[in-house]
Amino acid sequence: MQGRNRGGTTSAAPAGEPGAVGPFARAQAFPVLILLLTLLVVPFLIFGDEGIRRVERLETELEQIRTENGKLEARVRELRRRLEAYRTRPGYLEDVARDELGLVRPDELVLVFPEER
After folding, report:
1. 19: buried, middle or exposed (CB in 10 Å: 19+, 13-18, 0-12)?
2. For a surface tag, which of 1, 50, 69, 105 has the fewest beta carbons within 10 Å of its beta carbon?
3. CA distances, 12 to each of 3, 24, 27, 30, 39 (Å)
4. In this structure, are residues 113 and 107 in contact, taking their beta carbons and an 8 Å threshold?
5. Secondary structure tally for the chain: helices H, strands E
């Protein structure tokens, strides 16, 4: 049903007249509206704080974590090597005690030289 306005004419123009909006024109307006919204929103998503800058910060953090992880893996390998030496080499524990703790046997003589300045 078409309503009549004050002048006695119908509110919707016939399909052939200028200013008529048919179903086809409405169907085309939706994709255009979506495209415009996309063109407005995407730059904010890409260049905003949650966009490219965040990705760059995360990549930097990932590289730091990988570097630290590599150092920890090397430390674990060294500790496993030492543990295996403790288990298999009879004199290894004594060698470590002498080198790291400065321990000596009761029958050994220790000479201490003053450091040069």
Report:
1. exposed
2. 1
3. 8, 15, 18, 21, 32
4. no
5. 3, 0
Tokens of 106: 């009761």
Residue found by looking up tokens 């052939």 in the block = 16
Q: What are 31-53's pLDDT values in tens digits?
A: 888 888 888 887 777 777 777 78
> What are the CA-CA distances from residue 63 to residues 55, 58, 67 (Å)?
12, 9, 6
Cα of 13 vs its chain's centroid, Å: 57
CA-to-CA distance for 92 and 71, rounded, in angstroms? 25
For residue 109, pLDDT over 70 is answered with yes
